[in-house]
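Narrative of activities, Objective 1.

The group set out to show that a structural description can be obtained from nothing but a protein's sequence at a throughput compatible with the screening campaign. Below is one input-output pair from the validation batch, recorded exactly as produced.
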Amino acid sequence: MLHQMNRKLMTAGAWASAGLLSVVMACGSGDAGSEEQQASPIAGSAQPLNGNGAPSGPHFNLNIIGTSTKTADISTGGRIFVPLQGSTRILLAEGADFAVLDANGTDGSAQFQLPAADPDGDGVTNYAVFARALGKPGGSSTLTTCATDPATGEELCSADSLSLARTSGRQRFQNVSKELLFVSVDLDGDGVNEEVGLFDEELQDFFWQVDNNGLRLAQLRFYPTR
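Output recorded for this entry:
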């Protein structure tokens, strides 16, 4: 019980220690601005949404930037570079704060730190993830949450993938918590998928598999839900 309480406190502290980070802008991101408003409670599906489809209030912003060069300017901040065409992995590390640990995914892997999404294992997350495609119109990308089965060493990827496509016009956020915070997989062989949250001990070595087909910017926002 004490361990669970500490995990909840760390998750809540992540928003304060992250400084309620403002959006990191990318070239050509168009309408990638954030709403810097007073924090408001977010409770499940009843959370208030802005016209862009995302909630109001504090959040951590992560820009996944597609690039055709391996010599991109990789500095600190909430951004990760991935191949404009091709695949890479964003390795996920558990921590109290949201932080980019390795921004260069053009060499095959990057690394992102974030808190456990569902530390109680009750299907209710401490934060939600919203995503949209930005940048120059055209291109698409697929993100899939994967992990390793510690019993067999087999890599397992979720049956639920996130598909983003940059079309013309204003791009709205969508809630992608199910796709990015859980691995939907049949662990016991009964033909029914279980929803395994990030960093649940049933699996290990969690990562997002990114398959990019010309998308220049995928924007993720992480909002507290409790």
